[in-house]
Amino acid sequence: MPTPPPSSAAQNGLAGDLNATMTAAQVGQELGTHKFNVLYQGNAIVTPGGGLSFTWTNYGDNNDLDQPFVMPAGSTAIGRVVLPMLPSGDAADVHVSLYTDSGGSPNLAAGALASTLIPAQQINALSAPFGLADAGPLAKPSNNVMYAATGISAQQPWAVQAGGSNGTSTHPQTCVAGNNVIFVGGYDATVTSHPSTGVVVTAAIDSSTVSPPVAQPSLPQPAQDGALAVTSDTVIFTGGNYTPTVGSTGGLTNTWTASWDPNTGVIGAWSSQTPIPAAIALHASVTYNDSFVYIAGGEDISVNVQKKVWKASISNGQVGSWVAQGNLPIAVISPAMAVIGNWMVVAGGSDQSGTVRTEVYYAGINSDGSLGPWKQAPDMPLPFASFNNGQTFSTPNALVTWGGQSNPMFFSDAVQVLTVDADGPADKWTLSHIPTGGENNVVAPFDIEDGTFSVLDINPNPGGIAYYTTSELVPVPYLSVPLPVSGLTSGTTYHVVIRQSRSSNSGSVAFGLLNGTPLPLAARTHARYTTGSWASVGAGMSVPMSVFDASTSASPIVLHTWEAIPSSDYPDFPSPATQTWVTGYQGDPSVIIGHCASVAVLNAALNVNPTFTTGVSPWTGHNGATITQSNAQTHGGLPFSGLLTPNGTTANPFVESEMFSVTPAAYYLVAGWAYSSNGATFSMSANWYDASSAYISTSSHSVSVPAATWTFVSNVFTSPAGAAFAAIVPTHVGTPTSANTTYLSNVAMLVYPAEAPQIASVQQVLYDPTTLLASATVLL
Fold this sequence. Notes:
- Helices cover about 0% and strands about 45% of the residues.
- The radius of gyration is 33 Å and the shape is elongated.
- A hairpin with a 2-residue loop joins β13 (about 200-205) and β14 (about 210).
- The longest helix has 7 residues, at about 120-125.
- It is mainly β.
- The strands form 12 sheets. Strands 2, 3, 5, 9, 10, 36, 37, 38, 40 and 43 form a 10-stranded antiparallel sheet that branches. Strands 4, 6, 7, 8, 39, 41 and 42 form a 7-stranded antiparallel sheet that branches. A 6-stranded antiparallel sheet has the order 1-44-45-46-59-60, with helices on one face.
- The protein contains 1 helix and 60 strands.
- It folds into 3 domains: about 35-145 and about 480-600, no CATH class; about 170-465, Neuraminidase (6 Propeller), CATH 2.120.10; about 620-755, Sandwich (Jelly Rolls).
- InterPro entries: Galactose-bd-like_sf, Kelch-typ_b-propeller.
C-alpha cells in the first residue's frame, strides 16, 4: 500500500506518542530535523466540470463526507487537494484524509494514505465568506472564488417595451451601474438587422424584480456593435456600425457622451466628443476611477481584427485625446473586459479566424491612467466571446462571463468567474452552468450584501414576449489542503474523506456541493466511526474538488510543507506539522504575503500506566487472568511489558486499567501492542461506568493476533449515554491455555485524534511599497 515517506530522524514534540522507537543511531541528531514534503502548486489532474447550481451543506460532527475520484491515466502521485469550505463563527477544525477504495467505499480499516488537519484559525484567516471586499489580509483570490448558485427563477414578464418608435433593440450595447441597466443602440426590433438609435434604462427594484424599461434620449444616429462604458455621471458610447453589415461605408469613429443620474437612471442629451483614432466595431470599453475611458480589440472597416488599446481622459462629460497603450498580446473581437481595483482584465474574444479564445490578460493601471505591461492570467475553462457585451460583467472583486458564445454558432450556458484583488487575479476560474436565453440576453448583477449578487438575466425578445429570470452568484472559499502521496495507480478509485471537529457550538464549517455531477463520481456521507454503508448526498451532487499532482512544472513557488507522522500506530492521525504560504504581493507570485503554521499533537493517554515500566499498578486481572511485569518480550525499546497469564479454565481472561473520566457520546481510541505466545483472538476493549461508578456496558471488537509477533490492535469507540468513567480492558477472547500468554505494551485510551490539540499560527507579512522591506504581524 502506498504510504507517505517516514520521518528520517528521531521525532520530538509529539506528546502522548508512546510508540516512538528509541534507536541508538538517532542519538546526536538535531531535534526537529524531520523529513517533510515541500509542495508546489502542481498541475491540476482532476478538476470539476461545470455543475448546474452550487449549494452549501453542513454535516456537523457526526457524519463524514466522501468525494471519490479516479486517478487519471499517467498519474501516480498527488500533492494537494482544493476543497470548498464555508466557515461560520469560530469555524471548526477540518480533517481531510485520502483512502484507498473497497467495493466503492473508502477503505477506512486500512488507514489513511495521508491525512491533514486544517485548524479553524487558518480556515477563518484564509476565507472570505462574505466576499473579498470584507475579508482579512490573508484571504486572497487563490483561496476565494464565486459560483452561480440556487439555479434560476421562473420567467417573469418584462412588462413594457420601449426604446424609441420601434421598441427595444436586439443586441444592444449594455452597461450596469448602481441598480440600473443601460441599453444603447443595437438592431432595430422591427427592421431586420437595421441599426437602432434606441436608448433604454431599466432598474432593479429588489433582488428579484425589474422595473419596466424607460426610453431615454436617442443616439445622434443609428449604431450597432459599438461599445458602452459609464462613470458615476457620464455614459460613453464609442464606434460601431451604422449599416447592417460591416464595411467601408459603415464604420463609425464617434465618441458620444451623455450625462446621467445613477439615482433616477435618467440620461441626458448626447453630445459628440473627441473621435476614436479609427473606425472600430465589436470592441470592448471600460472606465477607471471616473477619470479615464479605454477601448480594446475590435475590428476595423476592412474586418481586420485588432489588438490595439486606447485611453482618453474624461471629466464632466468631456473626453480628451485618445492615447495608444500597449497592445493586447492577441487580436480579438468581443472580449470580456473589466476594471477591478487597479487592474484591467481582458478575457476571451474571437480571433481573425473566428476561433473563440480562452486566453486571459491583465495589466496594472497607473495613477495617470496609463497601463503597465500585459501579463497572462489563467485561461478560461471554456472559450468565450461576449455577444455585444451583453454577457459579461464585473463585481468589486470578480470578472464574470454569463453565457456568451463558445464558438461562432453556439451560445453557451456556462458561468465562468475569475476573482481579483489588489494583488491580482486568482490562479483559477470557476465554472458552473445556468440555463440562459441565448444571444439576445443581457445580464446584470446587483449586490444583495454579504458578498452575494443577484443576477438578472433579461431577454428583450423583440417581436415576442420579453422576460427576465434571476439567480445568485455567491462567494466560495476554496482552501488548498496538502495530501502528498506517491505510488498510486492510474485508473484506480481513491477517496477524499472530510470531517469537521468543533471545539464549541460557536462555530462550524459547511462544505460545497455542485449539482450535475461535476466530478464523474457522486459525493456520499456516512455516520462517523461506524461500519454502515455510505449514502448519496443527492442525485448528481459532487464536491467541486480539484486534485493536483506534486510536480514543480506549474510553478516554482512553495505552497505548503507537510510532515508525515513517523509511526504507523495511528494511521488516521493527521500530519503533525504543516505550513501554508500565501504569496502574490502586487501580482508577484514569488513574494510572501503571509504564513500559516500548524502543529498537531497526539492527545495524552487517559490512563496513568500505559507502558508497565514502573510496574503493573493500577492494572488488575479478571476472569482468571493475572498481570505481571516482564522483560521477556518488549516493544519499542521499552525495558518492560505487562504479561497477561490466563488460568487455562476461565473464558475471556482480561486485565483492566483504573477508571478515568470521560464524557458521554464522545469518540475514544483504545490502542496498544500485543504479543501472543501461540496466537490469539484479542480485543482492546473498554468498560463504561456512570457517575456513581456503576457498570454500564463494554465496547469491544476482536482481531486475530499471530503467534510470536508484536501486533498493533486498536478500536475507536463511542462512549454511551450517561458515561462518566471508563477503563481499558485488553481481553484474550475464548478459553486459552495457561501457556498461551500475552505480552502488552503501550496500552492507552485517548480522545480520538480527530480532536487532537492544535498549535496554530497565522502571520501577515507587511511591505513598504517604496523599499519592499517587510515586517510580520501575528494575526492570531
